C-alpha cells in the first residue's frame, strides 16, 4: 500500500481575499496529483478566536512551524507581494526552514519576469526612478549588472525571485512553474513535486 505524501501549501495566499476557497481548490489539485495538501489554516484550529496581538501571532508562527514539521514537502507561491518586486517574506522563511530539513520543494508564479525586471518596474512605479548600470564595485557580488538610485544591486540575474529563495527550491531538486493562470501554475508545480515524493517513498 502506497502512503500519500503530505505537502505544505505556502505563500501569501493566507492574506488574499477568498483564501479558504483558494486553499480548497489547491487541495483538490493536490488530491488529483496523489498527495495531501495542508494549508496553514489546517494547523491553526482555535487560534482565529483569539484577540489579535503578539501572543496570537506567535501561536500562528508555532502552528505553522509544527505543520511544516509534519509535511513531506512544500510548495510555495513566489508571486510578488503587496505590489513590490519581492515575494511574501514569511514564505521565504518557510522555504529556508523546509530546505534545512532536506525536504523536496517546488515553486510557482503567475509573474514570469526575471527578478531585476521586477525591481525595475517597482522602482519606476513607486519612485519614478530607473535602474542604471552598476557603478558601485566595492563588494565582490557578481549576481547582477544594474543597481537602483541608492546604489543597491538589483541582484539574482536569471532568476524569478531573490537568489536564495529560488536557489533553495532548485537545490532541493525542484523548479518554478510559470503560467498566467494561477491554478495551472500550481498544477504544474504539484505534479512535479508529487512525482519526486513518490520516488522518495
Automatic annotation (TrEMBL):
A GO molecular function term, named singly, is: 5-hydroxymethyl-dUMP N-hydrolase activity
Q: Which SUPFAM superfamilies match?
A: N-(deoxy)ribosyltransferase-like
Which keywords belong to this entry?
Answer: Transferase
Q: What stretch or stretches form a coiled coil here?
A: none
GO BP terms: namely:
deoxyribonucleoside monophosphate catabolic process
Q: Does Transferase show up as a keyword for this record? A: yes
Q: Which Pfam families does the UniProt record give?
A: Nuc_deoxyrib_tr (PF05014)
> Which PANTHER family did the record assign?
2'-DEOXYNUCLEOSIDE 5'-PHOSPHATE N-HYDROLASE 1
- List the protein's name: Nucleoside 2-deoxyribosyltransferase
State the organism named in the record: Gluconacetobacter johannae
From the broadest rank down, the organism's phylogenetic lineage runs:
Bacteria, Pseudomonadati, Pseudomonadota, Alphaproteobacteria, Acetobacterales
Amino acid at each position: 500500500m502506497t502512503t500519500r505524501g503530505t505537502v505544505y501549501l505556502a505563500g501569501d495566499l493566507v492574506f488574499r481575499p477568498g483564501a479558504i476557497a483558494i486553499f480548497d481548490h489547491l487541495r483538490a489539485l493536490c488530491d488529483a496529483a496523489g498527495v495531501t495538501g495542508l494549508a496553514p489554516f489546517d494547523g491553526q484550529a482555535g487560534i482565529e478566536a483569539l484577540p489579535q496581538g503578539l501572543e496570537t501571532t506567535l501561536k500562528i508562527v508555532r502552528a505553522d512551524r509544527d505543520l511544516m514539521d509534519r509535511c513531506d514537502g512544500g510548495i510555495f507561491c513566489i508571486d510578488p507581494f503587496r505590489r513590490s518586486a519581492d515575494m511574501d517574506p514569511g514564505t521565504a522563511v518557510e522555504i529556508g526552514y523546509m530546505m534545512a530539513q532536506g525536504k523536496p520543494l517546488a515553486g510557482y508564479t503567475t509573474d514570469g519576469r526575471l527578478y531585476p525586471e521586477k525591481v525595475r518596474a517597482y522602482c519606476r512605479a513607486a519612485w519614478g526612478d530607473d535602474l542604471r548600470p552598476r557603478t558601485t564595485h566595492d563588494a565582490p557580488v557578481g549576481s547582477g549588472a544594474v543597481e537602483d538610485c541608492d546604489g543597491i544591486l538589483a541582484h539574482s540575474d536569471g532568476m524569478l525571485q531573490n537568489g536564495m529563495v529560488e536557489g533553495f527550491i532548485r537545490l532541493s531538486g525542484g523548479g518554478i512553474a510559470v503560467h498566467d493562470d494561477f491554478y495551472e501554475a500550481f498544477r504544474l508545480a504539484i505534479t512535479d513535486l508529487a512525482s519526486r515524493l513518490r520516488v522518495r517513498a
